[in-house]
From TrEMBL, chains A, B:
Lineage, highest ranks first: Bacteria, Bacillati, Actinomycetota, Actinomycetes, Micrococcales
HTH gntR-type domain segment(s): 11-81
SMART domains: FCD, HTH_GNTR
Gene3D superfamilies: GntR ligand-binding domain-like, Winged helix-like DNA-binding domain superfamily/Winged helix DNA-binding domain
InterPro entries the UniProt entry points to: GntR_C, TF_FadR/GntR_C, Tscrpt_reg_HTH_GntR, WH-like_DNA-bd_sf, WH_DNA-bd_sf
Gene name of the record: pdhR
PROSITE patterns reported in the protein's UniProt record: HTH_GNTR (PS50949)
Top-rank taxon, per record: Bacteria
SUPFAM superfamilies: GntR ligand-binding domain-like (SSF48008), Winged helix' DNA-binding domain (SSF46785)
Keywords on record: DNA-binding, Transcription, Transcription regulation
Protein name: GntR family transcriptional regulator
PANTHER family: TRANSCRIPTIONAL REGULATOR, GNTR FAMILY, UXU OPERON TRANSCRIPTIONAL REGULATOR
Species per Swiss-Prot/TrEMBL record: Glutamicibacter ardleyensis
CDD domains linked to this entry: WHTH_GntR (cd07377)
DNA sequence: GGACAGCTACTGGTCAGACCAGTAGAACTT
DNA sequence: AAGTTCTACTGGTCTGACCAGTAGCTGTCC
């Protein structure tokens, strides 16, 4: 449960401006790319001091809603939603935790398996084309080594997430992929190129693409789980692997 | 892909303080409940103006890392991680979107099913006791009406999430539950008490508890999906329901 | 007419200082 | 020991100054 402080009697000066701007963005009155009034105009508009306006700007920037540049006379620009706030929360929760890698992998498996299922249900022909192209880029990247291949692999997953048509899933999955990448990029580079694993990954992703094309949501979801486990499972200490394995094997077709 | 601005040549005055404080929290040097130095001491420590210090404080507050109170001579307090940043992102992404309810339900099903699976793998005896107590509170709340029952139901899910031992899953699930609650609380209250549905929900949760007690991860995961679909599925327009249904039916035991 | 350089009137970034409402904790009283 | 008062701080807000940076206008050259 989130901790609660006593309800404020009246809002602080900067909060009034934050709420106003957030409301205008949420209602679509301010769109991505639009500019806010300059700081001195907001001073006049809200009848507050310029430092209160600047405090509000810092909050909106921190939340990924706007960006400003020194000297730009056009005012701060409204941004599209980003994974940055979630990245920050993930960092806060997993930093230096002994089980952080397995929990990040669990989180990623959770999100990507649903993204795959949704992509199978909601995908368009244009999505399929983008998936084809992304897979082709993986084949090219395979010849360039592990680092390029990892990047192309992340791109493929992102295209799948876009095909899911679920922005929140997409941004969440992006955030956790970036966190995992940062945590283990050194380890992956140390392990050197593993061409066989890259080849199997491409085959897996081809299967995912086929399942999405065939609108087979269950197969797409299952493949996300087994693929992630095969690619990353060896990085998890054996005693921590049970939970990840349980998730990976959920919905497996019966053996035989 | 998050948009990128040109790399800054040097950090802004407030950013130096934000980074310093974040690093000290991440390394454990500053713990939850600890106090930061007061603003005027940070001015001296960092050699910057007090308005720059205050801008840094606004950023740290906005990210849920600290809280301050007017007049408190002890300085800002370090908070435990909260769902607030994710709540804000969810609001940004789903506000006034026509498909926001189904996407929120999908997100919640995604997270809670994994939380159930993890809880089955990682739960302790203390967790089981807390789950027993949470279910008992649901039985009591049933007699008090739908609003009390909904709250007790949310509490039960949160106890399950705690038993998962996965803070990120727990906070994410909490954020999406709160968002759904806010979106449909009026609708639920309008529909009046449905004692039969409340009774079935309790039965479902008893099955979840049994599956967690039996360490049956797959059953626990499956029950989260089917239960959410049964409880909320009717609120989703038929044409949007396919994706949710596909997720709900993943991993279903064969009929018969 | 287009490219380029220079200029200007702004912008955001940072700071110092002032003042006020609010708080913790010490001192005092009962 | 409990309650009240007082004080020296705190955070909240504001004003004004100054500076580096930018967009866009103007003038020149080809």
């Amino acid at each position: 449960m989130s901790q609660s402080s006593p309800a404020p009697v009246k809002p602080r000066a900067f909060e009034t401006i934050v709420r106003h701007v957030e409301a205008r963005v949420l209602t679509g009155e301010l769109k991505i790319g639009d500019r806010l009034p300059g700081e001195r105009e907001l001073v006049t508009q809200f009848g507050v001091g310029r430092s209160s306006v600047r405090e509000a700007m810092r909050v909106l920037e921190s939340n990924g809603m706007i960006a400003s540049r020194p000297g730009d006379p056009r005012g701060a620009v409204v941004l599209s939603p980003t994974a940055a706030p979630l990245r920050r929360l993930i960092t806060r929760l997993t930093h230096s935790s002994a089980s952080s890698l397995v929990d990040l992998l669990i989180y990623r498996m959770t999100l990507e398996s649903s993204a795959n299922s949704l992509a199978a249900t909601r995908r368009s022909e244009a999505d399929l084309l983008r998936l084809d192209e992304a897979l082709e880029r993986m084949r090219v990247a395979r010849l360039q080594g592990q680092a390029a291949f990892s990047q192309a692999d992340l791109d493929f997953h992102d295209v799948v997430a876009q095909a899911s048509g679920h922005a929140l899933l997409q941004l969440s999955a992006e955030a956790v992929r970036q966190s995992i990448e940062q945590l283990i990029s050194a380890r992956i580079e140390e392990s050197g190129d593993d061409d066989e694993l890259m080849q199997r990954t491409i085959e897996h992703h081809q299967e995912v693409l086929t399942a999405i094309r065939d609108r087979d949501a269950h197969l797409a979801e299952h493949l996300a789980r087994s693929s992630l486990f095969e690619y990353y499972g060896h990085l998890v200490p054996v005693q921590q692997r049970e939970a990840l394995a349980a998730l990976a094997s959920f919905g497996s077709p019966p053996a035989g």
